[in-house]
Write a structure and sequence with these properties.
single chain; 355 residues; alpha+beta; Butyryl-Coa Dehydrogenase, subunit A, domain 1; Butyryl-CoA Dehydrogenase, subunit A, domain 2; Butyryl-CoA Dehydrogenase, subunit A, domain 3; two-stranded antiparallel ribbon
């Protein structure tokens, strides 16, 4: 699909102009793909289109090595993956152990990454590494290096609960050497680079929820118009119709949040406040997805629980990934909590708690 989107010019349209490109178009693309394809496909497209291309577009500079990859990624002829989480680290990216040591040829990389989606089909991967000094001693600095996936050893492909259309693998880098110009951005700014890329992916996750749940709602509405129970179509039972209307209400509110945040990304600097706002939209959408998909599945009764009769059960399992991928709920809430602010003046003038 990415190659076809590249040939059609869709990826270049998304990233035309200056940073950060047409974010509203990116959100619309994520929604449409999630509406028309399995969630695993939608996640893979957004991973390449939003996270990987965001970092290449922003931090690739004029390096020939990175510029060539960026151009091929925009054409869809080179698929990019992202490798951050490690077997022992999980969400704690500050505990990264995958080590990049400077050598005469550039950087020597050694270490493991556990969750690399598109890792089995991709051409290159952006790897978050701890940087060592010339003696090989690890430092506190992190960096992002772009590595050909053919240089990595695929350890295994994970068997997942859902999103089966998306490959997710564990890989190892056994003394892989890449040129110095493979460094994405400045050495030491690895976490900043990752935070930038993940912000676009997180907004895409919220847009995917719109697409997947909107598709499920359309299937549920059609079913309630065709299925007759107790002498009338299911939609003729007002309490069922109102439950479906409530799903639409939730999706319309989420759509407003996604579009508003996309507009802000195009007009404001990506500071801590906006990063937290994106995290808030993502965690809200992810938690909403499970409930809304479950409501749509409920309209099918027993058939909704039978994967050979309806796709709703699989769709329900697929959207559960939204609460993990791109940053867990807990990580999103930590970002949001960092922006909590009190109102000292209003408190002093209006609160009177007796002692």
């Amino acid at each position: 699909m990415l190659e076809r989107l590249g040939k059609l010019g869709v990826l270049r349209h998304r990233w035309r102009g200056e940073h950060p490109g047409d974010v509203r178009f990116g959100a619309a693309l994520a929604e449409e793909v999630a509406k028309r394809a399995p969630t695993g496909i939608a996640v893979g497209v957004s991973l390449h289109t939003e996270s990987v291309l965001a970092m290449l577009h922003r931090f690739g500079g004029s390096s020939g090595y990175l510029a060539d990859l960026r151009e091929r990624a925009l054409d869809g002829t080179a698929i990019g993956a992202f490798a951050a989480s490690e077997p022992a680290g999980g969400s704690d990216l500050s505990a990264i152990q995958c080590l990049a040591t400077p050598v005469s040829e550039g950087w020597r990389i050694k270490g493991s990454k556990k969750y690399v989606s598109l890792g089995a089909v991709g051409d290159f991967v952006i790897v978050l590494c701890r940087l060592a000094d010339r003696s090989g001693t690890p430092t506190q600095r992190l960096g992002t290096l772009v590595v050909p996936l053919e240089a990595a050893d695929l350890v295994r492909e994970h068997e997942k609960l859902g999103t089966h259309a998306l490959d997710t693998v564990a890989v190892e880098f056994n003394d892989v050497v890449v040129p110095a110009e493979a460094m994405l951005g400045r050495p030491g700014l690895g976490l900043a680079n990752v935070s930038y890329g993940l912000s676009f992916e997180r907004l895409a996750v919220a847009a995917q929820v719109l697409g997947a749940c909107g598709h499920a709602l359309a299937l549920a509405v059609e079913h309630t118009e065709r299925r007759v129970q107790f002498g009338r179509p299911l939609r003729g039972h007002q309490h069922l119709e109102f439950r479906l209307a409530d799903v639409l209400v939730e999706l319309e509110v989420l759509r407003g949040a996604v579009n508003h945040t996309a507009d802000q990304l195009m007009t404001q600097p990506l500071d801590r406040k906006l990063i937290a706002r994106i995290a808030a939209v993502k965690v809200h959408a992810a938690r909403l997805a499970e409930r809304l998909m479950s409501e749509c599945m409920q309209m099918f009764g027993g058939a909704g629980y039978l994967p050979r009769e309806t796709p709703l059960g699989q769709m329900w399992q697929d959207v559960r990934l939204a609460r993990i991928g791109g940053g867990t709920d807990e990580m999103m809430l930590a970002l949001v909590a960092g922006e909590l602010r009190g109102a000292a003046e209003a408190y002093d003038s209006s609160i009177r708690i007796s002692t």
